Amino acid sequence: MAETHRRIIMTSRPKAEPTPDNFRLEEGPVPKAGAGEILVRTKYLSLDPYMRGRMSDAASYAAPVEVGGLMQGELVGEVVSSDNEKFKVGEHIAGHLGWQSHAVSNGKGLRKLDAGQPLAPSLGVLGMPGMTAYTGLLEIGQPKAGETVLVAAASGAVGQLVGQIAKLKGARAVGIAGGPEKCRYVVEELGFDACIDHKAPGMAEHLKEACPKGVDVYFENVGGPVFEAVFPLFNFFARMPVCGLISQYNMTELPAGPNKVPQLFRAVLTKRLTIRGFIVWDFAAREADFRRDMAAWVKSGEIKHREHIVDGLENAPSAFIGLLRGENFGKTVVRVAPDAK
Amino acid sequence: MAETHRRIIMTSRPKAEPTPDNFRLEEGPVPKAGAGEILVRTKYLSLDPYMRGRMSDAASYAAPVEVGGLMQGELVGEVVSSDNEKFKVGEHIAGHLGWQSHAVSNGKGLRKLDAGQPLAPSLGVLGMPGMTAYTGLLEIGQPKAGETVLVAAASGAVGQLVGQIAKLKGARAVGIAGGPEKCRYVVEELGFDACIDHKAPGMAEHLKEACPKGVDVYFENVGGPVFEAVFPLFNFFARMPVCGLISQYNMTELPAGPNKVPQLFRAVLTKRLTIRGFIVWDFAAREADFRRDMAAWVKSGEIKHREHIVDGLENAPSAFIGLLRGENFGKTVVRVAPDAK
């Protein structure tokens, strides 16, 4: 039976939280590779919070998805036909080829996977989220032995790695996650020293208990009330890599006052805080270091990882909506090819 | 006629803006140097915005002045008697010896001035404010040739130097100052490329015109509405050394909402801003570099400086209150010894 080309289109921009109406599944014939091109059959698609930004036309570091255009994202897939000497049929690649079951590419920007490299983790611990955790923590956070590293969204794609890398560097790792199951996983499986449930009452008090020496590095994925609970705990010279702000991606207006910017700046000044935003490609020069270190840590078992696997491209929109609500547990990937291992 | 020892005591903590009631002039006999000590006769006293923080008992990087205690601050003075072999009568020193006409010291923490070094500038361009400008701009701001450096309180002790150092590094220097006279001075005497009057209407629009390529470094001395006008102009990867927040030192409650922290963090993330607070002693390792470079720049005339000289220790409180209102024009120093040159 001939395969169908399936793709997810953004039909309209979300006003606040995305809804299923903002997406449409389109079907058609599988495209063919032209001169110098390859055809890729998608195995897994990565879903990441940053994609919410691409759905908006507010100015940002990347161009937005067009209304009526293909949703953007990275996938891993198999080369199924090739007119490009750099890629052989049967090889696996990772690339930003969008939410679709098949993709034609001239090969530019694709990353070839080693034979036998596990596919879903290539989009997580060994991919962009892994490098985000590695570079943001080491380049901006710069944890030292004995310091306390606090990370929000600690069971998510990036957070789960931040705490483990912090431990490898001799720091105390404390996570913040939603719900007791995630918190238990973060401590018992990943080896964080503590994890605070932001859905349970008393978060601020629990955070304080879990960070008896204060916070030296706060790896920010969340913003909002979680940040407010962390804020009083900053030590002198604390560093705050700003990686994501998932709590405010669906925000349509600023929260009620008072305006706390002066309070924030006062702490920046008196405690000499560093607050620095980044995206992973700002540290592209560290990619080789990341690939070497992370592959070794995964192989040795020093770094564990967990993927949240959703079956079927048609379920990508609902999985993405759930990801923004924190319903995932681990790095979210969509199994696009039913036979993907 | 015997000299009198005069000192300014903090009688109560200010609630908002300090008032003359918060201070008292005390007189008594001139103290005597004991074993290993020296007696210093004050020539000039430095007044600096950070002292407002010392009058408050809110947690900060330095212990507050005690109620009933001597106001803290740096002075330059002459050694008038010495039982310490490191200091000779007639030498001049700078040190944090407080708001007083005479001080006894064991010599610890004092900095000896070179013979003939001008005294008032030793508290400004060649002292703590000079090193603050030098280290904050070069270590955190890191201006590159062709970039735009914007500095608030541009005619003040630190701001006047920040823009001139930026020019020496090949950057465009834009100042913000209060009133046309200060702005004219900043451009015509100090050589900034532009200076915007924050007391005139249309500051945000004028800033935008003065920074046609946006802002790469914003040296923050002020906070509040000035920051809000600068905020939209940040370029990608802009750096913001937070040196002072004079607009909010007298603040008793946070301003009305909305809460703009999420808006700030969104810009930090998407523009990859760096916001970092500092005080000068964080960069103590750069002191020798500062002394070498700044002395050379002042000598060659590449760096100009202006002191705002107030006569009489008894006028220090009103001069300090005026400094917090922006009434000074240049580095504020009090001539404590009527004969000081």
Quick recap:
2 copies of one chain form a homodimer. Chain A is α/β, with parallel strands linked by helices and 341 residues long. Chain A is built from 9 helices and 15 strands.
Describe the protein's topology.
The structure is a homodimer.
Chain A: E1 4-10, E2 23-29, E3 38-46, H1 51-54, E4 75-82, E5 92-95, E6 102-105, E7 111-112, H2 128-141, E8 148-152, H3 159-168, E9 172-177, H4 180-189, E10 194-197, H5 203-210, E11 215-219, H6 224-230, E12 234-242, H7 261-271, E13 274-277, H8 287-300, E14 307-311, H9 316-324, E15 331-335
Parallel strand pairs in A: 8-9, 8-11, 9-10, 11-12, 12-13, 14-15
Antiparallel strand pairs in A: 1-2, 3-4, 3-6, 3-15, 4-5, 5-7
Helix pairs in contact in A: 2-3, 2-8, 5-6
Give an account of the 3D structure.
- The structure is a homodimer.
- The first copy, chain A, is an alpha/beta fold.
- Chain A folds into 2 domains: about 5-125 and about 305-335, Medium-chain alcohol dehydrogenases, catalytic domain (Quinone Oxidoreductase, Chain A, domain 1), CATH 3.90.180.10; about 130-285, NAD(P)-binding Rossmann-like Domain (Rossmann fold, 3-Layer(aba) Sandwich), CATH 3.40.50.720.
- Chain A contains 9 helices and 15 strands.
- In chain A, strands 3, 4, 5, 6, 7, 14 and 15 form a 7-stranded mixed beta sheet that branches.
- In chain A, helix 3 links the parallel strand 8 (about 150) and strand 9.
- In chain A, helix 2 (about 130-140) crosses helix 3 and helix 2 (about 130-140) crosses helix 8.
- The longest helix of chain A is centred in the middle third of the chain and has 14 residues, at about 130-140.
- The radius of gyration of chain A is 20 Å and the shape is globular.
- The two termini of chain A are about 20 Å apart.
- The mean pLDDT of chain A is about 95.
- The interface between A and B is large, with 43 and 43 residues.
- Chains A, B: InterPro entries: ADH-like_C (IPR013149), ADH_N_2 (IPR041694), ER (IPR020843), GroES-like_sf (IPR011032), MDR_fam (IPR045010), NAD(P)-bd_dom_sf (IPR036291).
- Chains A, B: Keywords: Oxidoreductase.
- Chains A, B: It comes from Variibacter gotjawalensis.
